[in-house]
Specification:
The protein has about 375 residues and is an alpha/beta fold. It has 2 domains: about 260 residues, pyruvate-formate lyase- activating enzyme, CATH 3.80.30.20; about 70 residues, Arc Repressor Mutant, subunit A (Orthogonal Bundle), CATH 1.10.10.920. The protein has 16 helices and 15 strands. The strands form 3 sheets. Strands 7-8-6-5-4-3-2-1-9 form a 9-stranded mixed sheet, sandwiched between helices. It has a 3-stranded antiparallel sheet with strand order 10-11-12, with no helix packed on it. It has a 3-stranded antiparallel sheet with strand order 13-15-14. It binds iron/sulfur cluster. The site of iron/sulfur cluster has 11 residues, from loops.
Length: about 375
C-alpha cells in the first residue's frame, strides 16, 4: 500500500521523547532533568512499555510523522540507546518514510564520529544548545562548553552529514551588549545552520538564576532593551535569508521544524518519558516529573499519567488562534470550519484596528503578524482573546 493511502486510513501523530539526563544542572533551567544516570536501563524498559501501552489505546491507528528527542541532554545517551528507542517506535507504529527525527544535543557531549553514528541511526535533524558564542555568557549560564566547542560542534554536525541543523540562542543575558548579541547572530549566519531558535532569557521560578535576580545579585535588561534585542534579531536574520515562521523561530526556506509546526497547528502529539505532555483528540495529559515515579507508575499501570484535562470548545478555539498567530498565521477558512464563524465575526473590528496600526497583515482569508506585531505578540493576544 502506498504511503498516500496509509495516511488516509491512519491519523498523523508526532512523538516527543523526554530524556531526563544531564551531566549537570544549568542555573536558568527548569526542565525536568537529573544528573544521576544509574536508572538509564530501567528508563529504557519503561519507555518500551509506555510505547506499547499507547499503541494499544490510541484510536484510530497512528502514523508517525515526526519524532523529537528532547530533555535533558539526549545526546548523553549515545547512539546505541537512541537507536534502541527508534526500533521500539518502529515496531509499534507505522512511521512515515519522510519522518523528521530531531535530537537535542549540547556542545561538549558529542564528537564528529558520534554525530555520524546518530545520523546513521536515523536522526536527520540536530538541535544544538549553543545559547551564546561568548565565553563569558556561557560561564555565567554554567554551560559546560566554550564558544570554540560550540562552533566546532556545528561544523562537525555538517561534516557528519546533517543538513538540517538548529542552533538555540538566548538574548538579554546579564551584561550582554547589543553588539555582543549581534556578533552571536553574525556567527550563526556564517555557520552551516538552517534553523535558529532565539529566546529571551526567562526567569523561571525555582531556578538558581531567579533567586540571584531576586536577591539583587544579578540584573537583567528591562523590557525595552529586551524588545530592542528582539527587533535586532528579526532584522538581522530576515535580511540574511532566514524566514521568521514563529515568534522565536527562524529558518532557511524549506527548513521549518515539522515537529514544532505540529504543535502550533494543533495536531496530535504524544509525549513519552517523565514530565512529557500529550495532546490527542482534544485531550491533554502530562506525566510525573520524576524518573523514579515514572518507572514505578509504568510498572503498575503501563502509563505514568499524572493529570489530564479535556479542553472546552472555547479553550480549544483560543489555543488554536494563539498558536496560529504566534507562528505562521491564522487560516480563517480552517478556523471557521473547525469552530464556526461567530467568534471571527465578533473580532473583526479588533483585527481591522490592528491592521490599521501596522500590526497585522489581513489578506482575504488569512491573518498574520507583521514583524512589529510579533514583537507585541503577548499584548495583542490579550486584546484578541
Ligand atoms: S543542559 Fe539543558 S536541560 Fe540540562 S540543565 Fe542545562 S539547560 Fe537544562
Amino acid at each position: 500500500m502506498s504511503n498516500y493511502y496509509k495516511v488516509q486510513l491512519k491519523k498523523d501523530i508526532s512523538l516527543y521523547v523526554h530524556i531526563p539526563f544531564c551531566d549537570h544542572k544549568c542555573i536558568y533551567c527548569d526542565f525536568y532533568s537529573i544528573i544521576n544516570l544509574e536508572n538509564k536501563r530501567y528508563f529504557l524498559s519503561s519507555l518500551k512499555r509506555e510505547i506499547s501501552y499507547f499503541k494499544k489505546i490510541l484510536e484510530p491507528e497512528r502514523y508517525v510523522t515526526t519524532i523529537f528527542f528532547g530533555g535533558g541532554t539526549p545526546s548523553l545517551m549515545g547512539p546505541g540507546f537512541i537507536h534502541d528507542i527508534l526500533n521500539i517506535i518502529h515496531r509499534n507504529f507505522e512511521v512515515s518514510d519522510k519522518v523528521e527525527i530531531t535530537l537535542e544535543t549540547n556542545p561538549g557531549t558529542v564528537n564528529k564520529e558520534v554525530l555520524a553514528q546518530y545520523r546513521e541511526s536515523g536522526i536527520n535533524r540536530l538541535s544544538i544548545g549553543v545559547q551564546s558564542f561568548h565565553d563569558k555568557d556561557l560561564e555565567f549560564l554554567t554551560r559546560i562548553h566554550t564558544s570554540t566547542t560550540a562552533t566546532q560542534t556545528v561544523n562537525y554536525a555538517a561534516e557528519a552529514g546533517f543538513e538540517n541543523i538548529n542552533v538555540d540562542l538566548i538574548f538579554n543575558l546579564p551584561g550582554q551588549t547589543k553588539n555582543e548579541w549581534l556578533e552571536n547572530l553574525q556567527r550563526v549566519v556564517s555557520l552551516p545552520v538552517t534553523h535558529v531558535s532565539a529566546y529571551s532569557l526567562i526567569l523561571e521560578r525555582g531556578t538558581i538564576l531567579n533567586k540571584m535576580v531576586l536577591d539583587g545579585k544579578v540584573k537583567i535588561g528591562d523590557e525595552d532593551y529586551d524588545a530592542e534585542l528582539y527587533e535586532t534579531t528579526i532584522d538581522y536574520l530576515t535580511s540574511n535569508n532566514f524566514i521568521q515562521y514563529e515568534i522565536s523561530n527562524f529558518c532557511k526556506s524549506g527548513y521549518e521544524c515539522e515537529h514544532n509546526l505540529a504543535y502550533w497547528n494543533h495536531k496530535d502529539y504524544l509525549g513519552l518519558g517523565p514530565s512529557a505532555h500529550s495532546f490527542v483528540n482534544g485531550k491533554r495529559w502530562w506525566n510525573f516529573s520524576s524518573l523514579k515515579r515514572y518507572i514505578s507508575e509504568i510498572e503498575k499501570k503501563e502509563n505514568a499519567i499524572r493529570g489530564e484535562e479535556k479542553l472546552t470548545s472555547k479553550e480549544l478555539l483560543e489555543e488554536f488562534v494563539m498558536l496560529a498567530l504566534r507562528s505562521k498565521g491564522l487560516d480563517l477558512t480552517k478556523l471557521k470550519s473547525k469552530f464556526g464563524a461567530s467568534w471571527y465575526e465578533s473580532k473583526k473590528s479588533i483585527f481591522q484596528k490592528l491592521k490599521n496600526n501596522g500590526l497585522l497583515i489581513w489578506n482575504n482569508d488569512f491573518i498574520k503578524f507583521t514583524p512589529k506585531g510579533y514583537s507585541l505578540c503577548d499584548e495583542i493576544l490579550l486584546k484578541i482573546l
